[in-house]
Amino acid sequence: MNRVDAVWAVGNVTIQPLVRLLTPLRNYGVERVPTSGGVVLAFNHFHWLDPPIFGALSPRTIYFMAKVEAHRIPGLGQLIRSFGTISVRRGESDREAVRRMREVVRNGHALGLFVEGTRQRSGKLGPVQPGAAMVALQEDVPVVPAAIYGSYTWRIGNWAPVSVAWGEPLRFEGLPKGGKGYREASAEVAGKLRHLHEWLVEMHALGRPLEATPPA
User: Fewest C-beta in 10 Å: which of 42, 116, 133, 150?
Assistant: First the structure.
């Protein structure tokens, strides 16, 4: 167990119970997440609550990416860095962030990326950026798409239900390690996230059954 794993272990008995107390959660298909080895976890993003929800529901320690501005907030920056979060400069080339992302999966860890690049305040999915595909292709690791639904309506006091659906690991054998390959792989990730999100909409309409299998 490294330092980040130790911090997550503390979070599992402090932050995770609080998240579950404040948010009625359902977790579908989590057994699809590889239990070891490098992997990219590709998430959509609606609300600031999404990172702790994914963290609470994931079987793996997640090395998240967060905008550099979040790292500069006193208290918050120190907290998220202790959980292994990597800073990235949005809207510009950040070679150091790319190097660290690749290093995370090369060392056998789970990298968590909000693949739209920013929160989608409308409650609709946004375009998928190429970062997840780039890391997966360059380091030959799978991408596991995971969609979240319901968090964009969550507010303190309404405790809106939130659900997560995990897809099957994606491999991109045969795609080139370059722009064309990144675009094709990103399009596949986007399609899987869309199907998972649509499935979650159906599950909420059905009252969120305790057990159900998300689409592959």
Answer: 116
